[in-house]
């Protein structure tokens, strides 16, 4: 424990914590669920990525150049796109272009608003603020957009006859898929809404817990967490909305016919 009362985790402590991953893998093998390898690979990937980003952030915090910080944000967005694509079982037409532009515009716009007007730090590229905040907004927005894309694909597949009938009766493509868009947008917001509903009573969020453990006053940590959740909600909504507004058009031909 240091002079701030913070308990420093040594390598032995991390190895002991990793025993919980082995426990999860053992349960999977015992129940023959076939997930043990996936759990182990995900845990290994998490460790490698966090160690890499830790050393990289140490370098970035010491250099503090806008080009380097912006490059890291672009790389983060690129990796989020790759993860979203690898997790999607069925992809909408033009998935990567639609998802990429939605993430950049939705997350980028919300992050800029939040950092410039809500937090108001200077300079704008201060990595100690910009990178973690963008990462939190990006991670949640990617999840919401992925849910929206998958739900839209499923809805249009299930409602094909209904959509084609609406088109025959003179509806525009937007009108024909209105229900599908509404359901997809609702699906994108479910994880965020559940998190907000349970926050503070059922669970303590990670950022708030980390700040309290590092010695920050609970009242200050709570204000930061409230602000962060507002930004996350806005990022998820904006990214999912942009994806759906671009995505549904990909299912129709220039003649406004549903693609086969």
TrEMBL record:
| GO CC aspect terms | plasma membrane
- Asked whether the UniProt record includes Lyase among its keywords, one would answer no
Its localization reads: Membrane
Q: Name one Pfam family in it.
A: UPF0014
Cite the InterPro entries for this sequence: UPF0014_fam
Q: Which UniProt keywords apply?
A: Coiled coil, Membrane, Transmembrane, Transmembrane helix
The residue stretches assigned to a coiled coil in this entry are 142-169
Kindly report the protein's main subcellular placement as a broad class. membrane
Q: Which residues cross the membrane?
A: 12-30, 42-61, 67-86, 98-123, 129-149, 184-204, 224-244
Membrane topology according to the record: Multi-pass membrane protein
User: Which family is this protein grouped under?
Assistant: Belongs to the UPF0014 family.
- Protein name as it appears in the record: Iron export ABC transporter permease subunit FetB
| Organism per entry | Oryzomonas japonica
- Upper taxonomic lineage: Bacteria, Pseudomonadati, Thermodesulfobacteriota, Desulfuromonadia, Geobacterales
Report the gene name.
fetB
């Amino acid at each position: 424990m240091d002079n701030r009362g913070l308990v420093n985790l040594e390598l032995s402590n991390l190895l002991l914590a990793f025993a919980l991953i082995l426990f999860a893998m053992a349960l999977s093998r015992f129940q023959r669920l076939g997930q043990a390898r996936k759990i182990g690979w995900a845990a290994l990937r998490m460790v490698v990525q966090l160690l890499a980003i830790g050393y990289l952030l140490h370098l970035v915090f010491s250099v503090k150049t806008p080009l380097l910080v912006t490059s890291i944000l672009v790389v983060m967005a690129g990796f989020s796109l790759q993860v979203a694509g690898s997790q999607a079982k069925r992809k909408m037409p033009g998935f990567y272009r639609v998802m990429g532009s939605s993430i950049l515009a939705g997350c980028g716009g919300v992050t800029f608003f939040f950092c410039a007007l809500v937090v108001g730090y200077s300079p704008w590229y201060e990595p100690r603020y910009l990178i973690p905040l963008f990462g939190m907004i990006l991670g949640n927005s990617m999840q919401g957009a992925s849910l929206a894309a998958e739900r839209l694909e499923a809805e249009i597949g299930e409602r094909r006859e209904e959509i084609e009938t609406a088109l025959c009766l003179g509806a525009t493509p937007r009108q024909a898929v209105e229900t599908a868009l509404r359901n997809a947008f609702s699906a994108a917001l479910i994880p965020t809404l559940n998190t907000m509903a349970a926050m503070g009573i059922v669970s303590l969020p990670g950022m708030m817990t980390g700040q309290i453990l590092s010695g920050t006053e609970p009242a200050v940590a709570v204000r930061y967490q409230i602000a962060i959740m507002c930004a996350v909600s806005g990022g998820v909504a904006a990214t999912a909305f942009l994806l759906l507004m671009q995505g549904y058009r990909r299912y129709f031909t220039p003649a406004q016919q549903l693609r086969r």
